[in-house]
Amino acid sequence: MEERTMFERLNTPEEIFSYKLGAALTMEKDTLAMLGDLQDSARRPELKQLLAEHAEETRQQITVIEQCFALLGEEVDDSPCPVTKALAAEAKATLKKTDDSLVDAVILAGALETEHHEQAVYETLLIHARARGAAPVVALLQTNLVTEQSAGSKVKALAERIATTGVAVPVEGMSGGVKAGIAAGVAATVGVAAAAAAKVGERKAEGEAVAAAADSLERERTAGTAPVAGDAGAVRAEEFNDDALEERIVESESRAQAQSDRQ
Ligand SMILES: [Fe+2]
Question: Which of 67, 81, 206, 244 is the right S-S partner for 26, CB 3.0 to 4.6 Å?
Answer without folding.
Answer: 81
